[in-house]
Design a protein that fits this description.
Elements lengths: L6 H8 L13 H16 L3 H8 L3 E9 L9 E5 L16 E4 L4 E8 L3 H20 L6 E9 L5 E4 L2 E4 L8 H15 L6 E9 L7 E3 L2 H22 L2
Parallel strand pairs: 1-3, 4-5, 5-8
Antiparallel strand pairs: 1-2, 2-4, 6-7, 8-9
Helix pairs in contact: 1-2, 2-6, 4-5
Length: 239
């Protein structure tokens, strides 16, 4: 049983623990980001936010774009339900799903498990572009970024039936690139977001597929602080 206090962190763990991680599955970031709103609701620091969620006036967007506004897909958008739509209530979830007319909170999740420096420029550009897209519909959305960085000493990636283990030379081990990746993300992507958190973890992606946080206590403290600040900022921006 995982020890994490927060749904977003438990969901992130579930991407790696006990099974192979498939990095090309596009909706993994969506899944993680959607639990930000579950944690905000459970925290209950914003009475306005909680009331709107309970009335199903605010929902997590099923398609991650505003209705009638073409844009790049974001991992987790939250806003006002389109008046003509019906909110979808999922068992065990506090926040309903549905199409949104506005974006009040937007979250983007990226995961760097291996070959980090090779893809770092693309990841930074994707993050910056998504923050811009959240704001294109007008209003003043709260933009949040999460990036998982792997600090494991070895890693195995899967491409179809092929296994590609890191060797420390041609294919760098995650630990060899993690610090540089974090530094470049903080320099290049963090300024585009209201809140930004690096999720530091270790996962080898090899049997028995273990997972651990570098420092669970610190990770939870950072995330809890983000939830508190977002709750307060929501009340300020959306009274």
């Amino acid at each position: 049983m995982s020890a994490e206090k927060y749904a977003l962190l438990r969901t992130f763990r579930s991407l790696f623990e006990g099974k192979p991680h498939r990095h090309r599955i596009a909706n993994l970031g969506d899944l993680v980001a959607s639990y930000l709103y579950e944690d905000l609701a459970a925290l209950g620091k914003s009475a306005k936010l909680l009331e709107r969620i309970e009335r199903h006036e605010r929902v997590v967007n099923l398609k991650n774009v505003m209705t009638g506004k073409p844009s790049r897909r974001g991992d987790g958008t939250f806003g006002e339900l389109v008046p003509a739509a019906v909110a979808v209530i999922e068992k065990g979830m506090l926040v309903a799903r549905g199409p949104v007319a506005t974006i009040e909170i937007g979250a983007e999740t990226k995961i760097l498990a291996k070959a980090m420096i090779k893809q770092i420029d693309r990841v930074i550009n994707d993050l910056k572009n998504q923050a811009t897209q959240f704001k294109r519909g007008g209003g003043n959305p709260i933009c949040i970024g999460f990036v998982g960085i792997n600090f494991a000493e070895q890693y195995v990636s899967f491409e179809g039936r092929k296994r590609r283990p890191t060797d420390g030379k041609k294919y760098k081990h995650p630990i060899q690139e993690a610090a540089q990746a974090e530094r470049r993300l903080n320099e290049g992507a963090r300024p585009s977001f209201d809140e930004f958190q690096i999720l530091r973890f270790r996962a080898s992606n090899a049997k028995p597929f273990p997972f651990e946080w570098l420092d669970l206590g610190n990770t939870e403290m950072e995330y809890s602080a983000i939830l508190t600040r977002v709750s307060r900022e929501y009340d300020r921006r959306f009274p």
